[in-house]
Amino acid sequence: MADNAAKLIRSVLGSPDSELAMRRQVIELASQNLHQPDVVVALVEALPAARDRETRDALLGLLMGLDTSRFPDLGALHDALLAAFRREPERAVRAALLDRLAAGLRQDERLAAFLVEVLAEPALSDDERRAATEAVSALPTVTEATAALALARCATAPADVQALALSIAERCPTWGVPIVNALAPYFDAKTDPATRLRMLHRLAEAKALSQGHLPILRQVLRNDPDSGARAAALDLLRSIRIWSADLHEQLLWTAAKDADAPLRARAVALQQEAPTLTDEQTAELARRLATDACAGVRTAIVETLRPYLRSAPVRAALGQALAGPTVLDDAEFAAIVDALAPYASRDAAVRDALLAAARTLPLAGQRSRVIDLLVRAVGADAIVPTLADVFEKERDPKAREALFSALKPHRHPRLVAAFCAELVEPGSSLRRACAAALAPLVEEDPRVVAAIEDVMLHDEDPELLRPCVEAYLRPRVARKAEPLRAAAKRDSLDPELRRRCEEELARL
Predict the structure, then answer these.
(1) Is 492 helix (H, G, I), strand (E, B) or coil?
(2) Integer Cα distance of 31 and 71 in angstroms
(3) End of a domain among 361, 392, 410?
(4) H or E stretch including 249?
(5) Is residue 195 part of a domain?
(6) What is the DSSP letter of 343?
(7) Residue 458: inside a domain, yes or no?
(8) pTM value?
(9) CA-to-CA distance for 119 and 132, rounded, in angstroms?
């Protein structure tokens, strides 16, 4: 009878041409002979051939209701159920299939990989995802790849499914980089705070914190609204054996920016416990000065680096920070300049950085301070050409006065041109001082003569006219009639100087 039933099942249920009524009768016959192994095998073979909904549901009902011990070949059963799952459009049936497959998880190692892959499907219903996750989480241990995949696939799932994914990961004996990377999305502020803290404590228990975990901890410390989670992440930093510039920077950031005062104080205390930075770490930390968006962090970085300024790359990085894209506030500017000041006369790279800052710093007060430092540390003689270039481009009155005071004793050709341009500029407040500085050069430089002639032709200011006319009347100056005639007509000019101009006109 069993052989006849098995043959009938294969013949009728395996044929796409058999009538529905006949299939119903055969399924009824099969349900009465499920104790026969051949019948069970025939039902498994018939499942992939079932095309109509009624037959497929009936077969699934029979097979899924049987204990796994009734199947001679579990591999064939699982193959049939896997194929049915992939074809099945009904969510409830898919979830039931997942539950049935989970029952064979310990007997067929292929199923763990399949269930985790199911979690990767973006269109899973909550019941399907929960069924797959519960099945995998029931395993006593899982591989790192399986754990990481489960975490990655449940990153956007509801909180209870995320918790199940974390349970899967906790069954992995080692938490390496794949799991760490898969955990990153779970530290988003939208994730349940209890889940975030649970992951942090699990990282600590693993006793395997490394630089690979720092991005996760940084994300919590900078973005998590829960101060408890941030405090846990801050304490976990101490468990990282080898510190990096990134880690130091995060401590500085927390100390300067965290909204919680006790946490800021804790970050400051941890800085004192930090191991000595290597040359590479100090150079890397110094380079952050030019990129970090937080002024408080940049100032703290400068203070941290002070003991390491004997390193040329660190000094160079501080100099580059002066020319960075961010406007420095007065506190961080002062910290950088004070740190570099002792090296201005000893280190050409520092001097060049300060000279560049004198040109490019956006705040006039800061440019003036840099110029004053350079003049005191290096001396104007050594940098006259550069300072002359800065003077020509500087527009802030106070900065220009500071430059002029440092430069006026010098007679560099570039400087003479700059002072001549200043002398003939009607809006300049330095014209009288420029006239006094240029007067001794009038017999040597035709550019000075041309600038003085311009003043005599157009200006009325007696304090400006007097030194210009006196210089113009010196013996070796090639004088012209028009400037003399214009000066002789100025009532504001001293009578004696007007008389001398008239005499020179008569001689000409």
Answers:
(1) coil
(2) 15
(3) 410
(4) helix 245-257
(5) yes
(6) G
(7) yes
(8) 0.47
(9) 7
Half-sphere exposure for 108 (CA within 13 Å, toward CB): 21
Domain span at residue 475 reads: 411-508
Helix axes 462-472 and 446-458, enclosed angle (nearest 10): 140
| Number of helical (H) and strand (E) elements in the chain, helices listed first | 30, 0
pLDDT tens for each residue of the chain, 508 residues long: 455 777 777 777 766 677 777 778 777 877 777 777 777 777 667 767 777 788 777 777 777 777 777 777 777 877 777 777 788 788 888 888 777 877 777 777 677 767 777 776 777 888 888 887 777 777 777 788 878 887 887 888 777 778 877 887 888 888 877 888 888 888 777 777 777 777 777 777 766 667 777 887 888 888 888 888 888 888 888 777 677 778 878 887 887 788 887 888 787 667 767 777 777 767 777 777 766 667 777 777 788 788 888 888 888 888 888 877 677 788 888 888 888 888 888 888 888 888 888 777 878 778 878 878 877 777 766 777 777 777 777 777 777 777 777 676 666 777 788 888 888 999 888 899 889 988 888 998 899 999 999 999 999 999 999 999 999 999 999 899 999 899 889 888 889 988 998 998 888 7
Q: How far is C-alpha 323 from the geometric centre of its chain's CA atoms?
A: 19
Helix, strand, or coil (residue 189):
coil
Q: Are residues 239 and 262 in the same domain?
A: yes
Distance CA 83, CA 61 (A): 16
Using an 8 Å Cβ cutoff, are 449 and 477 in contact? yes
Structure tokens at 84: 């049915």
Write out the two tokens for 280.
């590479």
